[in-house]
């Protein structure tokens, strides 16, 4: 009986510590213990299925095979799996612009998710309205007035009448004369940017960007084919829309930029990631998480926490000129680095970690800056989706964070 007990106890222990290689030979059991042995074999199967399913969920694999219904061990995991799949689907709908999605379970997470969706919907509507108004205003500003319908010298647009044969300036209004006085080469610069003079229908319209005194000017130009003093000519009606153009660019940047760090936001970051994956680009994705931001916020206030977030972003922005830096969460960043090898990315992040930890702002402070990061490289043979790539980098970041905590604990 002692041998049988030892065998069963040893098997039971193996069930929990070595599920993959656990076997029980029923022929070695006494007859009275065979039924118990069969039960333990069934238990081993259930535990193995539980372990496999739990590992898949922990790694973010929602496509993992679901254990059969008779395995009651995995019932809570099945419920979690269903919830996560539903949340993933809802998040995908939100990413597509469906801001009606709501979660009515999972407590605080549901409140945060629903609040985020409402804020995204409000911000999207506001930005769309502002962009629409700005574009409408720009179109109005770009519309020309017919040369003969207004008194030439009392309108704000620049008006030039130019010979099509030799480019002589035949006539100007006051506003146009001021431009020539300011820059005698103004007309010759414009003529280099203009299309051919074969104006269909007698008139045409185009925009140009003129570099003048090392400054970009955005000009809206209407061209009319006319006769002037029996000479073939064109009339240029030029409107300087630089202010409106810059305002529109700033508004579009606002839609894609994080207000605190001026890096790209999550919306733009996911757009860029999806595009790079679709184009089969070679790149490294680096997922970065600030260490102990909650501690800084709780003990020193959110202003200090915002300073922490902004200063880390400033360091990360120096990774390289072609790196796309995105703030994708309160204390999370994503870097997309084209043509980066894994070892090179690790080395560069270690260099930035050193600079972050030695940031001059921390002198005299009771805390220090640091980050944890996870890296995944992608090439043209990649088969992972954008979310799967980000999930792998996220998991590696947590591995890095745990390893650093363990290292610090061993030192202490």
Explain what this protein looks like in three dimensions.
The protein has 412 residues and is of the alpha+beta class. The protein is elongated and about 120 Å long. The chain is built from twelve helices and ten strands. The protein has helices at 2-17, 34-58, 75-95, 107-142, 174-182, 186-193, 242-256, 266-278, 293-300, 302-316, 342-357, 386-411; strands at 158-163, 169-172, 203-212, 215-228, 231-240, 264-265, 283-290, 324-327, 332-338, 371-378.
Gyration radius, to the nearest Å? 33 Å
Largest sheet: 5 strands, antiparallel
Helix coverage percent of residues? 40-55%
From the N-terminal CA to the C-terminal CA, the straight-line distance is 49 Å
Structural class estimated from helices and strands: alpha+beta
Oligomeric state, counting identical vs distinct chains: single chain
- N-to-C series of helices and strands: HHHHEEHHEEEHEHEHHEEHEH
> What percentage of amino acids are in beta strands?
15-25%
Mean pLDDT: 82
The parts where pLDDT drops under 50 for at least 5 residues are: 144-150
Number of strands: 10
Described by the principal axes of the CA atoms, the overall outline is elongated
- Number of continuous helical runs: 12
What is the spatial order of strands in the main beta sheet? 2-1-5-4-3
């Amino acid at each position: 009986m002692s041998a049988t007990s030892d065998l069963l106890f040893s098997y039971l222990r193996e069930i929990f510590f070595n599920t993959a290689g656990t076997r029980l030979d029923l022929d070695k059991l006494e007859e009275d213990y065979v039924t118990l042995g069969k039960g333990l074999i069934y238990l081993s199967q259930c535990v193995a299925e539980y372990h496999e399913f739990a590992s898949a969920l922990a790694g973010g694999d929602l496509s993992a095979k679901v254990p059969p219904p008779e395995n009651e061990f995995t019932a809570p995991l099945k419920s979690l799996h269903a919830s996560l799949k539903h949340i993933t689907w809802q998040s995908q709908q939100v990413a597509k612009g469906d801001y009606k999605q709501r979660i009515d379970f999972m407590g605080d997470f549901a409140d945060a998710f629903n609040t985020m969706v409402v804020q995204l919907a409000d911000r999207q509507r506001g930005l769309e309205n502002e962009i629409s108004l700005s574009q409408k205003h720009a179109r109005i500003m770009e519309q020309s007035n017919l040369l003969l319908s207004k008194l030439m010298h009392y309108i704000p647009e620049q008006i030039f009448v130019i010979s099509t044969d030799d480019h002589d300036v035949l006539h100007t209004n006051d506003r146009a004369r001021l431009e020539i006085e300011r820059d005698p080469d103004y007309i010759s610069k414009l003529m280099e940017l203009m299309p051919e003079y074969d104006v269909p229908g007698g008139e045409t319209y185009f925009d140009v960007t003129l570099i003048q005194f090392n400054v970009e000017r955005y000009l809206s130009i209407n061209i009319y084919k006319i006769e002037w003093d029996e000479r073939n000519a064109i009339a240029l009606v030029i409107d300087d829309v630089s202010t409106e153009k810059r305002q529109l660019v700033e508004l579009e940047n606002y839609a894609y930029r994080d207000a605190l760090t001026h890096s790209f936001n999550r919306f733009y970051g996911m757009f860029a990631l999806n595009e790079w994956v679709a184009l089969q680009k070679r790149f490294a994705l680096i997922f970065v998480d600030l260490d102990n931001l909650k501690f800084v916020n709780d003990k020193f206030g959110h202003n200090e926490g915002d300073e922490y977030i902004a200063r880390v972003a400033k360091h990360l922005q120096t990774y390289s000129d072609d790196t796309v830096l995105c703030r994708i969460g309160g204390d999370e960043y994503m870097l997309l680095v084209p043509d980066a090898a894994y070892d090179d990315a690790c080395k560069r992040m270690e260099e930035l970690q050193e600079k972050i930890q030695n940031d001059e702002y921390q002198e005299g402070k009771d805390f220090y800056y640091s980050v944890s990061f996870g890296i995944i490289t992608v090439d043209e043979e990649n088969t992972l989706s954008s979310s799967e790539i980000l999930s792998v980098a996220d998991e590696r970041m947590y591995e890095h964070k745990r390893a650093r905590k363990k290292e610090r604990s061993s030192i202490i």
